[in-house]
Structures are given as C-alpha cells and as structure tokens.
Amino acid sequence: MKIKGIVAAISVLVLSSCSHIQKTNMAIWGNPYDVNDTFVALGKSTYEQQCVACHGVNGLGNGAELKANMATPPNFTDGTYDKSLGLVAANIKYGKRIDMPAFRDKLSDEQIWAVANYVKSLHQQL
Ligand code: HEC
Known about the structure:
The chain is mostly helical. It has 6 helices and no strands.
C-alpha cells in the first residue's frame, strides 16, 4: 500500500512537471489576460527586446543572430504558421526542440501571452 502511494505521488510529480502536459494546458485554457492597449504594447516591446535577434524585425524568421546550423524559424507573416494562440504561448514559455529557447525564467506569464498575441497579429497586419 505504501509503495503504491509513493508510486502515485511520483507519477503526479513527473506528469505535472512534463512540459508537454503544461503546453496542452495552456492551449486548452487560453489567454487569461485582457487584450487591451497596454497588453498589445507589452507584446510589441517584448518582441522587440527578446525575439527580433532570431525572428527578425518583421517576423519573417530572418534575424541577424540565427546561425547556419540552427533550425529555420517560421514566417509569422504569411499565414503558413497558423498555430492557436495557446500553442504559440506554450512554445514561447517552454521552448521548441533545440534552437527556440524557453522563456519561462526570463519573461512573466503576462509577457509570454502578450508576445504570443503580437506574433499572431503579425499575420493579420499584412
Ligand atoms: C536564439 C534565437 C531565438 C530567439 C531569441 C527566439 N526564437 Fe523563437 N524560434 C527560434 C528558432 C530557431 C525556431 C524554430 C525551432 C524549430 O522549429 O526547431 C523558433 C520557433 C519559434 C516559434 C514556433 C514554435 C512552433 O510552433 O513550432 C515561435 C512561436 C517562436 N519561436 C516565438 C518566439 C518569441 C515570441 C521569441 C521572443 C520572446 C522568440 N521566439 C525568441 C529561435 C529563436
């Protein structure tokens, strides 16, 4: 009985720290913040400070810091990248494969949702 309890506790710990599950949760629950002018401005300034280096000023995926051996980031402007807002935010928070860094220690949740909102808006601006 005791062992079963310990196994259950460990499973819960492992599962809840697994970024796949947390990514799915973000996609399901969606953006908890109001999309007002302050939020939109926060998304833009966060993008300019943290993302331009790799994703480029306009979100084309052609930032100056990209190295030849890195994966090619998506083009956020032409509609080919059409993930939901929640999945975009999750990939920013927890990173994507090797070359897209996780921002959970660098940005607040509000900044993450705001910059995800900005990324989505790059497509709508064209
Ligand atoms: C060090 C370079 C670098 C920085 C800085 C960076 N990215 Fe990325 N990003 C990448 C690369 C490379 C990929 C493609 C990764 C892959 O497909 O393996 C990517 C992929 C993505 C994706 C697509 C994930 C998916 O759904 O496949 C999103 C969204 C994204 N980045 C948003 C951002 C945002 C927002 C910021 C700033 C907060 C940012 N990135 C900062 C390099 C970077």
